[in-house]
Amino acid sequence: MGPNIGRLRDLSPPLRYLAYVAGALLLALVAVGVGATAAVLVGGGHERAMSGAGGATGSGATEGTVQAKTGEARNANPDGTSSGRNADVPASEITFIHTATDANCRGDYTYLSSPSIDADPNAIVLVTQASDRESTGSATYEHNIGVWYARGAQKWAIFDQDRAAVPRGATFEVTVPPASEKFVHHAELNNTVGNSTYLDDPLTNGNPDAVLSVTQNWNPGGSRGVYNNHPTSVLYDKEVEKWAIYNRDDAPIPDGAAFNVAVSERAKPGG
Q: Which residues contact 112 (CB under 8 A, 6 or more apart)?
């Protein structure tokens, strides 16, 4: 370094200035190159840390949100499907077959998976046991069923009202009706009499020709749930011109019980 500095001092002021400028530019270029290399190394490491080994990320979902339900979700996505909500409102009815397996069952419930309802606690889901021809389980399902929303897994599930384990191989038909043809009914003191709870909705009021499909909803919107371990059906009361959901075994409808309801029109003869 000593001899180089001496040589610079021997130069005339203009040449010495140019030499200083050239040296400063060289140092700046070196610094930029080192910084860019460091940024690439640091950025790559951060990206890997965020993605984790194999690129998988943790869901961070809180378990046990709904305390009254048995066995909250142990895995955020047991079937490996995306839990991102489909922003498109279904324009028509969506129907699919669901079969209970070791992978999607957790005790008294079995997880559903569909982009139309995943991560949507306000979805309206209807379920029935599939016909004997479609079912790989028992010929007759001997449990009253319903649906509930598991916040930890961000999925809907079919459950047994008596809290019995869902048998593997049991098969169900799942329907998501169009938005304009469905609503949730809550049994309350002002609309419930004994074993019946009366609906009050423009889709059903004064419409004896309506065709109703009903599934018990344990916790609409992901709220705390109410059990109603009884077989249900519907009837039209001509005196008040309203439809009612009732327990077929005459058991009282519990306060707070909720039901998903889909409404369609009965086909006219020759129509």
A: 98, 104, 125, 147, 155, 156, 157, 158, 174
